[in-house]
Amino acid sequence: MTRSAFAEFLVRRRAELRPSDIGLPAGGRRRTPGLRREEVAVRAGVSADYLARLEQGRDTNPSIAVVEALATALLLDERERSTFGWLALTSSNESRCPEPTDEQDQVPETIEAVLRALAPTAAFVLGRRLNVLSWNAAWEDFVTPLGLLDDRDTVNLARYVYGHPMARKTLRNWTEAADTFAETLRRASLRWPGDTGLRETIDTLHTIPEFAARWRPQGPGHPVTPTLRFDHPQLGAVDVPFETLESGQEQSVVVWLVTRAPAAGQTLRLVPPRAAGQ
């Protein structure tokens, strides 16, 4: 039986802990690293057999009380608890998660109107797979010299950062951006485990070593960077803080607050930060 991400989290976390972490003597031979299953089971107040079923994916419906007890037994911090709880919630429901419809990739006219109204601020609509579904003229003007719109039929932020030759040349904080987009896709995979298109996007990116090295489906992941820093071919050094505005269509309106570095002259910030806040 294929283990769920919840089961993988359990196994990985148990292997990471050491006896001394929970006040046990450090001596003695252990066949495998980490805590024994029985040690975690006792701390959580469950049987070792039940914990084995959870780790092997034979039981995929733990109660909230069991999830909380295991989180405490495994010494999870607040962010890890949140991830752990979501994995428990989705572990038994992947087959029942609806597939996205074509309509979910179609931008409503009301959102298109928002994009137009935001001009001259650069803004675009982002789908769950980091695919850019629509954009306004200001964003197009900014990103065209970066090569982001070379293939207008498949505009995807993660594919650009990991696969386009200009990404490393123009993104001064490429590592932070790469971490951010891997983390965004990781969160999307937890939220929409039944989205085959999302899985295909992630599988394709996994062929790129830099993405595979950053993929942590079981853990808490990286914090998301709030700024992209470009060496723009036409504008020079430009820092771009961004704000994400959720819509009711499983889409987001992303606003790039384009700012030219002080040495390059006057500010280009086009929207006050509070106007773009969530």
Automatic annotation (TrEMBL):
CDD domains associated with the record: HTH_XRE (cd00093)
Domain of life: Bacteria
InterPro entries recorded: Cro/C1-type_HTH, Lambda_DNA-bd_dom_sf, MLTR_LBD
Domain spans labelled HTH cro/C1-type: 34-81
Official protein name in the record: Helix-turn-helix transcriptional regulator
Lineage: Bacteria, Bacillati, Actinomycetota, Actinomycetes, Mycobacteriales
